[in-house]
Amino acid sequence: MTPTHDLTGMVLAGGEGRRMGGRDKGLEPFAGLPLVGHVVKRLEGQVAELLINANRNADAYRFFADRVIADLVMDGAEGGFKGPLMGIYSGLRAAKTPWLLVVPCDSPALPDDLVARMVKGIGQHDIAVAFDGDRLHPVVALLRTSLADDLAATLAEGERKIDRWYARHAWCKVDMSDCPDAFANLNTEEEKLHLEKVLMGSSSKEVK
């Protein structure tokens, strides 16, 4: 079991939100909180430090994290909005621990025991990826921070596909097939409203 002090958590919130009209998805209101607020709750108290990877609205995100980091700039290229693999790389560089747990800002229903399950499932591998029984969720992952140099070289080659980079390393999938709905991610306003209605309905039933 990886102890808490060896683990940094990071929420990926650095995207453009194109399918939400360019709005900052992490700050979209959802069930009384910004989306990122729900995600942060899944990591709080279970990691040594909580980061948010964001390329805009850093002041708003600071309320939810120990540190807010933007995508790093490589080889003189413009920073920002370079995709999740660049966000992961930025987190690997920023983390002060041997391990980094990455989650997306638009999955507000992630399991409360996600951290423990990912840590337990990784075994001797370098990367663990959540698997809902049907498909992998590559941006819900636990990674050794020592992979940063290799990822830097991969990015310099022009690679932006997460799965292709994972395949270069000893990786495994962590079975989350008992809670596939927990990994629903929200790319559109319609998806957001639908999941909000479902979760609010579930909360009402629990209260009764």
TrEMBL record:
GO terms for cellular component: cytoplasm. It catalyses: Mo-molybdopterin + GTP + H(+) = Mo-molybdopterin guanine dinucleotide + diphosphate. It is an enzyme of class 2 (transferase). Residues 9-168 form the MobA-like NTP transferase domain. Pfam families: NTP_transf_3. GTP binds at L12, A13, G14, K25, N53, D71, D106. Keywords: Cytoplasm, GTP-binding, Magnesium, Metal-binding, Molybdenum cofactor biosynthesis, Nucleotide-binding, Nucleotidyltransferase, Transferase. Signal peptide: none annotated. SUPFAM superfamilies: Nucleotide-diphospho-sugar transferases. Its cofactor is Mg(2+). Monomer. Belongs to the MobA family. The N-terminal domain determines nucleotide recognition and specific binding, while the C-terminal domain determines the specific binding to the target protein. NCBIfam families: molyb_mobA. Transfers a GMP moiety from GTP to Mo-molybdopterin (Mo-MPT) cofactor (Moco or molybdenum cofactor) to form Mo-molybdopterin guanine dinucleotide (Mo-MGD) cofactor. HAMAP family: MobA. This is Molybdenum cofactor guanylyltransferase. It comes from Vreelandella sedimenti.
